[in-house]
Design goal:
Elements: H1 2-22, E1 24-29, H2 37-52, E2 57-62, H3 70-78, E3 84-88, H4 111-130, E4 134-141, E5 146-149, H5 156-159, E6 163-166, H6 169-178, E7 181-184, H7 190-195, E8 201-204, H8 206-211, E9 221-223, E10 231-237, H9 238-242, H10 246-280, E11 284-286, H11 290-322
Parallel strand pairs: 1-2, 1-3, 6-7, 6-8, 9-11
Antiparallel strand pairs: 3-10, 4-10, 5-8, 5-9
The structure holds pyroglutamic acid.
Residues 88, 142, 167, 187, 204-205, 207-208, 230 line the site of pyroglutamic acid (PCA).
Length: 323
Amino acid sequence: MKLFKYFLSIIASLIIFSNISLAEKWDMALAYGAGNFHSANATEFAKNVTEKSGGKLTIVTHPGGSLFKGGEIFRAVRTGQAQIGERFMSALGKEDPLLEIDSQPFLATSYSDAMKLYKASKDEIAKSLDSKGLVFLYAVPWPAQGLYSKKEINSVGDLKGLKFRAYNSATIRIAELTGMAPTKIEAAEISQAFSTGAVESMITSPTTGKNKKIWENGVKYFYDIAAWFPKNMIIVNKDAWNKLDSATQELVMQQAALAERKGWNLSKKGNVADKKALADAGMQVGKVNAQLKAHFEEVGAKMAQEWSDKAGSRGAAVLDAYK
Ligand code: PCA
């Protein structure tokens, strides 16, 4: 009997010990509001992994920047303060110029080209993230980026001096090259920036304009220049990743692939529906005229040159694979 109890206690402690080492909990930092399609998609991904992992991995989502703000998430995941998170890739050009390839104007102006560009760049990006201690899971684009303005824009001259909300180096550069005055502001602060008059124009998706009810801040015009499709990516801290057994790692990757497919479809839907929502809210939704289009294309060509100087042979290899 004594021996039996002895073995029982060993077995019990083994079970307890293995449960401790096998049951992981990840906090997932999301910058955008719970209603945003990226957040909704990530939440479904987290729920699926949690349910299917048989208690081995629980992913708890924190949308709306409630755990870390957009600008903090990359570092938070890298340092393991959050095990998993989502970040707007092209805001990370200083980490690696390849992360901003999807925000180069007029390089990929349709969903199919955006997908081609993604496929051409993904391995190199995943490799570079790996060297920073991160595991790349999936990426989903925002709908086509368009120009918002409080005032009507009919000529290059109308852009001069406009106080412009930028979200990455590429949009700062566009503003500089078109004579606007850029300030970098995270999505969470857009409404405030427009309502206080700190800015009066920006380039972003119909989705972000709709989510912010941007028309309530005096923004009347949306010009659908559809110049690029920037993506959000989901990344995991490598130490956290290595604590999972291989079956759970496989499950996460499988659910990530599913979330990626769903996310691209949601984005495509939003690209149509959210533009309609802007028009339904009374905004003027249209295209820029030929003179302005040519001007933006010229700016795009200059930026392409600047980017390839920065991205060097790695960038050239990805562009070759894309074209
Ligand atoms: N919305 C985000 C990034 C791109 C987009 O469409 C933003 O405006 O910050």
